[in-house]
Amino acid sequence: MLRGVESxxxxxxxxxxxxxxxxxxxxxxxxxxxxGDLQSILESSLEDTTLVDYEAVGYVLxxxxxxxxxxxxxxxxxxxxxxxxAELLYPVAEQIANYVLSFSDLTNSERxxxxxxxxxxxxxxxxxxxxxxxMWILHIFASDPAWNHIRELVALYSSSNSQVVMRYCALxxxxxxxxxxxxAIKDDYAAATPLLKLAILFASNNLGVDxxxxxxxxxxxxxxxxKLI
Length: 229
Prior knowledge:
Elements: H1 2-14, H2 23-35, H3 38-45, H4 54-63, H5 72-84, H6 93-101, H7 108-119, H8 131-143, H9 150-159, H10 163-176, H11 179-186, H12 194-203, H13 209-218, H14 224-228
Helix pairs in contact: 3-4, 3-5, 4-6, 6-8, 8-10, 9-10, 10-12
């Protein structure tokens, strides 16, 4: 059913911003989703863990936040479902992150629960999540300091061998951390890859003004972009 909806509106979306749906389409889509028990559709998509319907899941997570008047319980039910199944949904990590960030009324308790479940795959020693998943999940923490979890972010940075994971941890540390966390990662600057260097430089904004100035001089920080950060 969801694929039918997607194909019906795909041509119109391609004409302009793909996120824009006109009012008539919104009403039609809203009626279809509310009448079709969206949560059941997602549950069905996830029943067979070897044949997850990523297209259906991604479509729902992308469109649902755009629909006005959607039942809050339905929206939260979908959130709980995808968070609980995060380890099955690596290919739609971008849609998961954007869906999580579409909520403006999450309590601190809800944020803690969501964070714990989303970070769990990143902390696995036996089957760590792919970098693509890590990049988007850590984007959540970099987007708003209210997500916090600074200890886990520093620990993840320190234990990871992935430059991608380290980079996005550093960006999140800049958002949620303070001087102590900047100190914990600043010495990695000299040996870091260019993108990781920029992230560490960004996190170094949490150092004291004079302290940061001397640190930049000691590490020979130069370049137009570096000087702007």
